[in-house]
Amino acid sequence: MKIKNHTPVTEFPLMGIPHTKGMENVLFVLFLAFYLFTLLGNLLILLAVLTFSNLHTPMYFFLSQLSFADICYPSTTIPKMIADTFVEHKIISFNGCMTQLFSAHFFGGTEIFLLTAMAYDRYVAICRPLHYTAIMDCRKCGLLAGASWLAGFLHSILQTLLTVQLPFCGPNEIDNFFCDVHPLLKLACADTYMVGLIVVANSGMISFASFFILIISYVIILLNLRSQSSEDRRKAVSTCGSHVITVLLVLMPPMFMYIRPSTTLAADKLIILFNIVMPPLLNPLIYTLRNNDVKNAMRKLFRVKRSLGEK
Predict the structure, then answer these.
(1) What is the largest CA-CA distance in the chain?
(2) Which of 31, 160, 218, 304 is least enclosed by beta carbons within 10 angstroms?
């Protein structure tokens, strides 16, 4: 869909990652390797959940949703970064910029809401185990996943609509490696104070509120674990530990980026780069290394692949 632009600006030069002159070959190899491993890891989790019936449970259903979001989120920015590695003048069109802004916040926001849904699933499994199958049925899981994607869409469309209606008349160079809200607000030829406050409420408070809800849920879970056997406690802590690590990786960078007013700091680019690259790359490793069911499914997948290769 073509975005109607009433401003003289038709494209934005991207400044990229600072202080990387002469490191083009290294960056190209790193970004390409990170991206390929991210795709491979998350595709394997999706394939394992779809293939093996013992993984057809609410927890792995939400994990497959998270893996799909982890494939899409870095795909909004990293391919262009790879393509621009050896390009001196990195340019993105106005329509491309708004599309990238929408896509990045859509998939990034959906990740946050999916993690909240996963925390609810763990709460029910540990605190109400006798009613777990009745509460977390297929309909409830579908509603929670659908609500997560819808909430991510509403969050992203608000960010995009706030930005696309701003006048851009120059200078138009974005001090970042992709189109994000704060660098674009700096370029607008208008007072963006109120827009900046809405961005804080929309992005920063969503991240903070989700983080607060997740912390409270795990405090309740830990309190309930005291009455369970040591084996049950070990399994629950192992499963929840994976989720807590993922929550910290996903939520801490946006909280730092968007909880404050619309300003840009020198560290912002590195923090947002970490947020785009590392959680989608590490999530498959976190859930695979700490979860026996996923590890066994991966072993079976590789055995099937090896047998097919021999045939």
Answers:
(1) 67
(2) 304
Q: Which amino acid is at 115?
A: L
**Count of other CB atoms within 10 angstroms of residue 105:** 26
When pLDDT is averaged across residues 1-25 and rounded to a whole number, the result is 73
How many whole angstroms separate alpha carbon 48 and alpha carbon 25? 34
Nearest CA among 62, 154, 41 for reference residue 111: 62
308 alpha carbon, distance to own chain's centre? 34
Q: What is the pTM of this model?
A: 0.88
Q: Which residue, chain included where needed, has tokens 């406050």?
A: 197
φ/ψ region of 17 (left if φ > 0, alpha if ψ in -120 to 50, else beta) reads beta
Burial letters 230-262, b for 16+ CB under 10 A, else e: eeebeebeebbebbbbbbebbbbbbbbbbeeeb
The rounded distance, in Å, linking the Cα atoms of 173 and 182 is: 13
User: Can the peptide bond before residue 171 be classed as cis, meaning omega within 30 degrees of 0?
Assistant: yes
Give which of 256, 290, 260 is closest to 273, Cα–Cα. 256
Q: What is the mean pLDDT of the chain?
A: 85
CA distances from 154 to 16, 87, 261, 274 (A): 28, 34, 21, 24
- How many angstroms separate the CA atoms of 306 and 81, rounded? 34
> Three-state SS for 11?
strand
Q: Which residues pair with 12 in a beta bridge?
A: 92
Q: Annotate 51-64 with b (16+ C-beta within 10 A) or e (fewer).
A: ebeebebbbbbbbb
